[in-house]
Amino acid sequence: MAGPEGRDLGGRLAGYRSARRIPAPSEILTLFSEVNEILATEDPRTRPRASSGDPGGLIYLDRSLPTALLPDIHARPGLLLAALGYRPAGRQSVMELLSAGAMQFVCLGDYFHGEGRVRRRWKRAFDEFSDGFRTHTAMDEEMTESLAVLMMVASLKTTFPARVHLLKGNHENVTNESGGGNYPFGKYAYEGAMVLDYLQLRYNDEVIARLYEFEKRLPLLAVGERFIITHAEPARFFSREEVVEYRTRDEVVYGLTWTDNDQAEANAVERMLAHYLGSDRAERALHFGGHRPVTGSYNLRAGGRYVQIHNPSRYIMALLPA
After folding, report:
1. What are the φ/ψ torsions at residue 2 (nearest 5 degrees)?
2. Which of 207, 257, 269, 300 shows the smallest number of beta carbons within 10 Å?
3. What phi, psi does 201 have (nearest 5°)?
């Protein structure tokens, strides 16, 4: 069974999952003040410091623990709850294993923006946006789910700071900025602009600033025993120094969060594995990511060394042994 910490968290997560309205400003400010402080002070042995003194973009996972890897969530709080409730081999749940210090949990990013399952909702929300959000029923539904996911992952990080790691994806751009490796986002509508307008309508600048800080503090790359993890396939080889210094290297952020299929340099994955794991461990290692949708459970690229696990129509999780 999960300890008191895990049981309390489980209740909070279920509450976010069943929410029918967006969180209160004070709730966001309290939680994201806490999670931002945790992200700003992570152990440098786990997350090496950049030259600025801030934690860099690289996470070294605990090699002694199995890893639960969750792909792009995209405003699906049910995916997160299902993953935490899953019982590997029918024994303890992922949440119970986290509580017991027997597992670590990594999210691939893209917490906001429902995708194809809600394309019609985005069309209705766009009509609301075009009318200045005088009505906003569809956008209320979208943002209730997106913010529920954000509150859930932030709660996980604050409860298990050393065993939960949240990577940045290309959808982590709450201000819809162009710069810092980010680009304004639009797929089914003008999602980036619509989210920012909605947040400005419902919250104050301090709330938006706290969410922006959270996104900017997220790392880009996690290194395990025989695997590495990034949101997207690496556009090219990126060294440790580049990833650690990602705050001043826009190309690194863009190249690890935005790469489309067939845009990466041919040997980027192979070089990344060798660089971060060493030649011995890299020989049978894999690079995991999401970002681009797959139709089944996973898709293999880069000669079978890069594993995509993001299926927006299914609940997918990868379980990686210690």
Report:
1. -70, 150
2. 300
3. -75, -40
The answer to whether residue 7 scores a pLDDT higher than 80 is no
SS3 category, 69: strand
CB count in 10 Å sphere of residue 208: 16
Quick: pLDDT tens for 243-286: 999 999 999 999 999 999 999 999 999 999 999 999 999 999 99
142-160: pLDDT as tens digits: 999 999 999 999 999 999 9
3-state class (DSSP) for residue 17: helix
Q: Which helix H or strand E contains 193, and what residues bound it?
A: helix 191-202
Give the integer Cα–Cα distance in Å for 111 and 106: 13
Q: Is 99 helix (H, G, I), strand (E, B) or coil?
A: helix
The answer to whether 246 touches 69, Cβ cutoff 8 Å, is: no
pTM, rounded to two decimals: 0.95
- Tokens for 9, please give them: 């968290």
